[in-house]
Amino acid sequence: MTTKGMSSNTILLLLTLLISQSFGYYDVHEDRKHLVERRRKQVFTQADACVSELGTSLGVSFLDCVLEKLEALERDYDNNGGEESCARDGEVDGDCAVMEDPFPVPSYTRSPLTIKHDFNDPADHPGMLMDFIRNYTCARDVDGGSPVLDKHEWVYDEAEVGAALLEKICQENMKSEGSAQWNKARGFLPAGNDVGKAAEMDVESAKVHCDKLPMCEGFTFQMTADGNNKPMIFFKSRASRSGVVASDEWKTYIRFKGSGYCDSNSAQQQEQISTEPPRTYTIEILREEPLVAVIPNFASQEDCDMLIEAGGTDEVMGRAHESGGGPSSYRRSYSTNIDVDYESPTDPITRFANRMFAFVRDITGYSLYGPGQEPINAVLYKDAGDEYRPHCDGPCNGQRNQYGARVATSILYCQTSDGGGQTSFTRSGMMIMPRPRDLLLFSYKHHNDTWDNGFTEHSGCPITGGRKWIATQWYREGVNYDVPWNMAENV
């Protein structure tokens, strides 16, 4: 479905139907609906005029055009005496009524578009304006995506990269508090996946007991205040260091799955990890800094099927919630996390995650590795109007980078909706049209080690039909299994 040739009223009706329950100015009190509708028509009318002039709703030029036209209406209104002029002339309808009460354009700066919020404005016209512009561009999927500025080739040698990563893990494991066969982590393994019965015993006895239990991959226990060296120990059939929830009151021991590989030489490791030849990918650069890039067909259909299965059924994926516990109106979607065991180099999900990290590491120059990172976040949009409102994944404040904070995001599009569902960069006029199996990457740390100041604010446009399934990975520098993401600076 496209909106080519639609009037502002038609687009208004479409958006009202699709997003009637979403956050912001579509779910308003009765006493504000008339004002919101009038303001929306004013913005959409000028947006239509800009599309007629420019041929698109994308780019900084469109944002500038809408703001300039709204400002021109304000000037005309002021120059003509506003409402007092209408009263003097005795006019109620006609041109005077059209000019009455134009949209009050708030203070703003360009590059990126930053609109100053006015806390003395109960109607929040600054937020209203950004909301309307974003939703107008989301509804115009006829414009397609932002243009590709440049293309590069990237070669991925899985065997070579995998062996190097394994060597790094083997070296770190030798330095860990555990042993060649066991890793120790601060924190606990979540409930579920129990194997055998919990029992009170010391750690060395627990290791022996786990060796005898079928499918036992590790154990977890809460340390006792009295220093008892025989705590209650819970044995787990699924255990990985990435799945440990940080806590100073718990300890977890996990069998090191890479020990067999660590005893092999480099050539043997490469052959064990992968026998596939190097693959060449095309990188599409949409913006140099802060970087926005797309790799078409980064994932195979088999990769996507594997990730979707790991994410679980629709019933397993929970509705996004606010921090207070209620359903989120800001993020209307369903999601779950996929933990990656980076110590299992031949696991298909680990192999895919290593490929993502290798790409992001190579193109950004950041020091990024899988251990200690956030899990892959699987997100499903399946109901008409499902969306993610504008937000930043990092600080977006232009300040100095803090080691351990997020520096980049990748989004893998495995399923794309029948309409809508674009990724819009709301303050810089960019739009990404999702294509199945493409990987979108954007970074928000500049080369001078400062954070982006708003160019990477983005949103997931409302879907109008079908399903959209994505896998999101956030990237942090300076994290590892000893200092995982949930112990690093939280942004």
From TrEMBL:
Residue ranges the record marks as coiled coil: none
Name of a matching Pfam family: 2OG-FeII_Oxy_3
Taxonomic superkingdom: Eukaryota
InterPro entries xrefs: Oxoglu/Fe-dep_dioxygenase_dom, P4HA-like, Pro_4_hyd_alph, Pro_4_hyd_alph_FE2OG_OXY
Keyword tags: Dioxygenase, Iron, Metal-binding, Oxidoreductase, Signal
Cofactor: L-ascorbate
PROSITE patterns, per the entry: FE2OG_OXY
Segments forming domain Fe2OG dioxygenase: 371-477
Keyword Metal-binding: yes
Example of a GO MF term: iron ion binding
Signal peptide residues on this chain, from the entry's feature table: 1-24
GO cellular component terms listed in the entry, alphabetical order: endoplasmic reticulum
The name this protein goes by in its record: Fe2OG dioxygenase domain-containing protein
The organism of origin for this protein: Ditylum brightwellii
